[in-house]
Amino acid sequence: LCWWRDRSERRRTRSSDRPRPPAGRRPFRPPGVEWQHPTGPPTDPRPSLGAGADSGRPCAIHERRLWLTDLDAAIGDGDHGINLDRGFSAVLGDLETGAIPTDGVAELMTSAGRRLLGLVGGASGALYGRALMTAGTRLAERAGDEEIGRRTLVEIALAGAIDGITALGRAVPGDKTMLDALSPALVALRATRPGA
């Protein structure tokens, strides 16, 4: 009971009031992962979203996995970047082998979401997986509509992802979650002209 009370008390304190780990202490690193000081994200302004056959560049999440993990280690368990890297690397591998269908974007998003949901641990796997699966489901519902443009498809997918995250996590904009980035993006997209 004392353990639970102490844990509950720590949750109520602001992150700035929490004690910092001792100087020189490093977050957990799996074997084979080298330590890099968290000075910030890589400075490349043009990160790729996936490994292309001709580009030879790793995906942006892979490039930033240690930085994301260090951010998570400050207030969490320090595995966010590593878990996302493992999940999205598996999705990229499945795309290369044909295990994920690429015939339609709706099926692609749903399959990628299922893969993340089954592979990435913690809340991030559930949230990213559910976001992609819900977006894919919404796009599949509109698959027969010939008059939908790309902008509208992105709007449908983004709204579906937000709904999936909200239904799972019960978060709202302002709770300092990924919705604080996704919701304004949807508002900005809806404010643009359809032809833009």
Tell me what the structure shows.
By secondary structure, this protein is mainly alpha-helical. The protein is built from eight helices and no strands. Helix 3 (65-75) packs antiparallel against helix 4, helix 4 (80-97) crosses helix 5 and helix 7 (150-169) runs antiparallel to helix 8 (179-191). 26% of the residues are buried.
Features:
single chain; 196 residues; mainly alpha; 8 helices; 57% helix; globular; disordered N terminus
Task: Bin the helical content.
Answer: 55-70%
What is the first-to-last residue Cα distance? 58 Å
Secondary-structure element string: HHHHHHHH
**Strand coverage percent:** under 5%
Helix/strand class: mainly alpha
Low-confidence stretches: 1-16, 18-22, 43-58
Largest sheet: none
Overall average residue pLDDT: 77
Radius of gyration: 19 Å
Shape label: globular
* Tally of separate helices: 8
Count the strands?
0
Short characterization:
It contains eight helices and no strands. The chain is an all-alpha fold. Residues about 1-15, about 20 and about 45-60 have low confidence and may be disordered.
What is the topological layout?
Elements: H1 2-12, H2 60-63, H3 65-75, H4 80-97, H5 105-119, H6 122-141, H7 150-169, H8 179-191
